[in-house]
Amino acid sequence: MSKQRVLEVKGLKTSFFTDDGEIPAVDDIDFYIDEGEILGVVGESGCGKSVTSLSIMGLLPKGIGKVVGGEILFRGENLVHATEKRMKEIRGNEIAMIFQEPMTSLNPLFTIGNQLIEAIRIHTDLNKKEARLRAIEMLKLVGLPRAEAIIDEYPHQLSGGMRQRVMIAMAMACRPAVLIADEPTTALDVTIQAQILKLMKDLNENFRTAIMMITHDLGVVAEVCQRVVVMYSGKIVEEGDVHTIFRRPKHPYTIGLIQSVPDIREKKERLYSIPGNVPKPGAITHGCRFAARCEHAFDQCLKETPQLYDLDGTGHRVRCFLHQREEESKSGRAVVAGEKS
Ligand SMILES: Nc1ncnc2c1ncn2[C@@H]1O[C@H](COP(=O)(O)OP(=O)(O)O)[C@@H](O)[C@H]1O
Ligand code: SF4
Ligand SMILES: [Mg+2]
Predict the structure, then answer these.
(1) What percent of the chain has pLDDT over 90?
(2) CB of residue 303 inside a 6 A radius of ligand 2
(3) Cβ proximity of 240 and 308 under 8 Å
(4) pLDDT tens-digit readout, 50-60
């Protein structure tokens, strides 16, 4: 069965324009998501994950954040040039998003029902009564007990995990083709986190919704994702299917991330053991951005910028000079060395 490419990001560059000048937060990234697929986007805080998702949704802070290059193709339509009217149609209808802290996206002044019913009515022809029934059905679908009562309660009456379920119900009410989940379980305790992940997986299986799962937690990736892109300092440094990434990680950054999670079923808030910090966007203009933290760094790494080398034709790509020769020898063709920078 051929898979449909539902979202394709090509050469995306997003910058912030501040008093200190242009901050290139996302710097030329490419990735795609197929229908029904769950793609993990991982990396430490500050790598550009949220900026990527806000770019796709057209929700960058106005006048400050801007897509300055590349394309965001939703079923072939370039959203970078879409009007605000079109983006409003897309958001919710076609691409929905859930955030880390659901309280910020729920209105504290309205009941769960008000908000969910409104979302359903915007996206369907259902009347108020039918929409209410659909809302109760959705709340049950996301595993909320007492759905008939919760529908008339206010957000503050629910726990964090329940609010996140409501957000998922709202996001799914319109059966979007893509759901972007930005650290959806980070604020939740481990048991609730597992339930929410299972719920998202079920929704993905039942409705074939493609999910872009943004997380700094490799445990989440192992649990739900089929493919992974690893981001570092605004760039993708490794990409591959989830088994390859966990069993044969190639980029020293990915290896470091995996090593710092000794037991992926353990508590989430474990500190990474990779020394140092993610550099500020734009701070490194020469060489590999990971060089200062990399135990394998050699001369070339400080002078040239590594490309994403394709290792074996299966979609495993790595941005590291250690693997440049691997690509050369496997493909039997000369590869242009890293860009001089
Ligand atoms: N509103 C903003 N103004 C200026 N810079 C920003 C803003 N939001 C994000 N950035 C920059 O973009 C970088 C990436 O941020 P973000 O995508 O939120 O990282 P994360 O991977 O943790 O989600 C940050 O390190 C910061 O330099
Ligand atoms: S290119 Fe060099 S510095 Fe960068 S990750 Fe590879 S070995 Fe380390
Ligand atoms: Mg973020």
Answers:
(1) 64
(2) no
(3) no
(4) 999 999 999 99
